[in-house]
Amino acid sequence: MHNLKEPLAPARPRRPRRGRGVWLAAAGAVVLVAGGGGVAVMVLGDHGSAGEKRPDPAPASSTSGGTGGRTAVRTAPPTPSSPRGPVVNGRRQPPRVAVPVSGRGRYAVVPGTAPAPAGSRGAVVRYAVEVERGLPFRGEEFAAQVHRVLNDRRSWGQGGRMRFVRVAGGPVRFRVALTSPAMTDRLCLPLRTGGQLSCGQNGRAVINARRWGQGAASYGRDLATYREYVINHEVGHLLGHGHQNCPGPGRRAPVMVQQTKSLYGCRPNPWPFPKG
Residue 97: pLDDT above 90? Predict the structure, then answer.
């Protein structure tokens, strides 16, 4: 410490300049650091083929403020309630969403319940829906899509085999969980998902949020139909169904074919009982 005979005049504080920011680009992420505002982070999903063997992605490190904790991290906005995507195969598509490699590593159970459709028959199957915190999706919208798919006549209930009831607590037969790629890799072990695939094991249908937001090359621009497939396929594992092979070129793929990887010469099909 230096001893000064005369006090130094305090330095004049520099006022932050508004409207200025610094863009940083590194390893597939674009970060905007705004003076006096916050940090906006967007990590773009990998658009590579889901069939390729890729190394496991390193978990993204958490972003914290470097100026005394005054900065904040903002994720991409949730999916809009009204679909705005193109019309593909006669269906209005949901918008594609960029998904971060890592979320917060904790699930939030979607609150509320959803009964089976009026007049449906079959054994009641109770299930829950979870969404990893930090993902750019609304849990209520994801849960509504899962419930619609599972109770479709072409799904596993087949209009009488079983009926699905969503609950937020109590015993359930399985859980459908929207999950970041990094957490998917951990939960699906010993299976190797490479940040690209989903899985169904240990009572949980782990839906890779990257696939949910971007679809798969095998389904092209038809994201809506791909989402039906990935729900039915992973829940199918929890109901005791294993993988199947394409029965022949040009034929409809059974839902338990690994259609995210390839159609193997078959036509895409998201339903266990496509004829209803």
Answer: yes
